[in-house]
Amino acid sequence: MNSPQYIAAEVLSALRERRPLVLCLTNNVVQNITANMLLATGGVPVMLNHSGEINDLLHSCANGMLVNVGTLSEQQAQIMHAAVNDARSAGVPWVLDPVAVGLLRYRTDVCRELLQTPPTMIRGNASEIIALAGAEGALCRGVESMAESAAAVNAAQALARRTGATVLVTGETDYATDGTTTYACRNGAELMTRVTGVGCAMGALATACLAAAPTPLQAAVATAAILGLAGERAAAKSPFPGTFAAHLLDELALLTPDDIAKYTRIDSEPSQD
Amino acid sequence: MNSPQYIAAEVLSALRERRPLVLCLTNNVVQNITANMLLATGGVPVMLNHSGEINDLLHSCANGMLVNVGTLSEQQAQIMHAAVNDARSAGVPWVLDPVAVGLLRYRTDVCRELLQTPPTMIRGNASEIIALAGAEGALCRGVESMAESAAAVNAAQALARRTGATVLVTGETDYATDGTTTYACRNGAELMTRVTGVGCAMGALATACLAAAPTPLQAAVATAAILGLAGERAAAKSPFPGTFAAHLLDELALLTPDDIAKYTRIDSEPSQD
Amino acid sequence: MNSPQYIAAEVLSALRERRPLVLCLTNNVVQNITANMLLATGGVPVMLNHSGEINDLLHSCANGMLVNVGTLSEQQAQIMHAAVNDARSAGVPWVLDPVAVGLLRYRTDVCRELLQTPPTMIRGNASEIIALAGAEGALCRGVESMAESAAAVNAAQALARRTGATVLVTGETDYATDGTTTYACRNGAELMTRVTGVGCAMGALATACLAAAPTPLQAAVATAAILGLAGERAAAKSPFPGTFAAHLLDELALLTPDDIAKYTRIDSEPSQD
Predict the structure, then answer these.
(1) What is the CATH code of the structural domain delimited by C4-269?
(2) Which residues on C lie below 8 Å from B249 (Cβ)?
(3) Crossing angle, helix B198-210 and helix B216-237, to 10 degrees?
């Protein structure tokens, strides 16, 4: 069988060729960097705020949809409920990014309802995945995770089995699991947590990878590999957040499938059950 | 008669002197780059979300208004309908940017209604201009245009004659037409399409130029010249999207009227009717 | 007594240690740079759009709240009214940034109502502070201030005494006053006015400093010192707005308490009454 590094490289190659159109229903803070990270990598971003238009796009040319609840309003929650149903009826894969779930009750309730229409992938930090999987934690740093990603692997596997979604837990090490098979992706840079929206944009990148990968698990691994390696290289060019952010976009555009195959560190994890 | 290059140079000079205040009713993704591109060039951006405040500003100190439907909601459509009527009664020129019209029905209907209060200028890519001019196309790349701008010149001229608006079709070559006279502006860089919001911010720059130019056609030509030359120079400094975006703002600030007069490539187009 | 430079240095040191969580209710244009400036300096940004979530966060882990009316809608005004009451009941300090008050009637009325629940600090340019203090001016440059900050010192002192809030008037020189004692902070760079959102993000930085300083007046002085010195250093690295903006974030991250103690220019102002 091919190595996960090789598969991730193939996903980047397919993404660049197919240029998937990613419908992003995301928070106000990160719309710009989300669009720019998608464009730099090779996807095509579309942001919409009208249910009729979302339905039209899902039934015409959207290749995937991201739902990120970072700055959720009641109006946006209604749009998202309709959108996930439309995505299902249109057969469009979608990714849930449960930002700050577990910390804030309203979005926690909304995300649990959204899960009734199972997403193709869920991307979150350890705290969010643990909260979404059912446990409650006293999490008090907003969108920052207090838990190490390794602490969420069991919760991620359980969440994947319960929902059928592939789960991508991000942190210093990223874990991708479909409930049966789990990979650990060890690229990345601490500086990525000092630029607003890198994590949220990762959800959009995951959506683009879904449209280019044979399986959601391979899409999740490719997402972690692509962003992790680009982040590492950008951090090598600048150790400070402002210039780092510009280099991150540059490195996403510069990255080749060959780089992914050679320089990513991905391991298969032993089952923890 | 003065060359279009010389006239565009004069527009930049007048823009820097007058510092037009541009009211931007625009989409959520691009508000920041829109404001920064205006500031870098010499305009003053104001973004508002309240009809009463929009009316106040239009009747006090706004020099122009941009209406961009990129992330249109029903609430925003209502605000925009009121705003174009207020702009007319206040005598403030306005620019319509019909993002993704032709692809998405709701905004297509809204833009056709907005055209009942004719804008001073319409800026769009080829697909959008063709759609707004009446033809329907199977357009499926969201805000990216699938058609070459040259393919939209006839539609642009017809749209200009029907609405009285100057039309600026943007692409590898930009075309500016008032329905009678048409110019082709050949500056620019492919990289400008890889940074979210450069096209949308061009609509705001066009609005600023309207407040500084003798005629809307000259404003459209100046817009294409200023952004095209700045984009070219930024691309010469960085071939990658993150650092390119920072250089684009720098180059807009650095650009002199003399640069515009010397280094822009603008041709008068023969009539195609 | 310790010098204001030394106290500002201590505030930066405490901010880095405590990493205050700042709830930002702010305008659409500046959310990204606001979050990035907070993160670069050492704070943790959270943006929310739902009253229930805002209340939850204020009663759990928010260390301060910013209210910025830059793109105010009626819906947002309702959210803000509830939020300032929730902040009071939770004992969370809050900062009002009255963007363009005096120019636009709706937000002027809203801000005067918000003042019924006194903020801990008010940050504005000269025109805004003069308008909020009661005088009406014919202000016509939107978010740009037409008045010199020195012209607003009396109004700032009166506003501070009337509301009990510390007032930070920003401009070429920044003035911080609690109504009795006034400091002038003379760091900064003109280029900071050419990047959208630096002023608005200053309000968020002030909120973070409130959570790290012994008194609101010291927080206001520290805010002006930190941003002014970082701006000065960024301008020394790049005289153009795009690359300057990236350097500004870098310099905020690089700045040490020692730099603040050594290189800021802060004077105590004689009473002007």
Answers:
(1) 3.40.1190.20
(2) 240-243, 245
(3) 140
